[in-house]
């Protein structure tokens, strides 16, 4: 008997709600709350079993606390935006509710994300006997669990880790982002950063390029080094890692549009005055770009996200590659959403399931790689994101 309150009725929120609704014995009572309740009702209408919906502004801590105290869920699944993380954690502490999210906190006024703000809640959650699970999406999320799984079963020490996120899908639009455009563009236009011998090396945005030959017929794609939040927690929790990098594939058309938008100032987050009104260029851009949820029925092709790890086992060097391949059209058929939201929403449901079943339950603030990866990996196979692990002769990266 577990009641969950899901916050955020966007692309990811839709998938989490569908997946939780499929598991009626774990998620016995579901409430979907968001800033615009009509979006919650639209998702609810797609489901085979009834759920409840609510309107809430998650940035209004007293309002959210009151909703949590009234509903008394066992867990809040936060799939609103990273800006809401701390407010939702505060409301969970006020009301005595466990917390989970898929993206670390980012201040709205600065394009910067790091775990320090949320890790600072460690004592408060521990003292309240509550758990906060951070980053239970795919990347972060599954990539952290993959790393823990490789370490547990294939390595004594991991020395090099390359997390590679490939979207080989095509939505047929000249330019669109697969999840919230504001969050996506802030991430892609930020400096790259990777971990090397105990320190961060910063690189200009998208300045390091490689090509990877993806498995199962996806083939070679260009990919670019970026900073991604799981690098921070993974290098903290696996201090033996000497180098950790994150790569994402981008097509030439996406990069061409992005370069032009950046050059003309449309990706900026500093407000400008237009006709006497203050507007943030990136927020205006979001308003004119296709809504990511509209891409669901249009997107064809597959994603392939995984980790290449090099290290030692019994004194010998080895390289392992672990990945999932997900088909956009199959996702749409199952939950009316493309694979980017699906690959985030399924691990969010599984993270919640781990907590509610007590398999991962410990007071404090935790990252995914701090728990036993095995039950989570089993559930990935059962609930739509099966994985493959192979031994490689070389990493397949040129650099
Ligand atoms: N770990 C991963 O692999 C991964 C991958 C992709 C995305 N993500 C994360 O997943 C989250 C959701 O992404 P998405 O693509 O689903 O975004 P989205 O489509 O923009 O949806 C966000 C939802 O949150 C709601 N919201 C925003 N501010 C709110 C507030 N103050 N109070 C209540 N609701 C609020 C929005 O409401 P309105 O509709 O009213 O605006 C919208 O329904 C983001 O944090 C994103 O960074 C993680």
TrEMBL record:
Domain Saccharopine dehydrogenase NADP binding: 4-133
Keywords of this entry: Oxidoreductase
The keyword NADP belongs to this UniProt entry's keyword annotation: no
Principal EC category: oxidoreductase
Family matches, as SUPFAM superfamilies: NAD(P)-binding Rossmann-fold domains
Domain (Saccharopine dehydrogenase-like C-terminal): residue spans on this chain: 137-385
EC number(s) reported in the record: 1.5.1.7
GO molecular function, one term: saccharopine dehydrogenase (NAD+, L-lysine-forming) activity
InterPro entries per record: NAD(P)-bd_dom_sf, Sacchrp_dh-like_C, Sacchrp_dh_NADP-bd
Highest taxon of source: Bacteria
Protein name in the entry: Saccharopine dehydrogenase (NAD+, L-lysine forming)
Organism, scientific name: Marinagarivorans cellulosilyticus
Organism classification: Bacteria, Pseudomonadati, Pseudomonadota, Gammaproteobacteria, Cellvibrionales
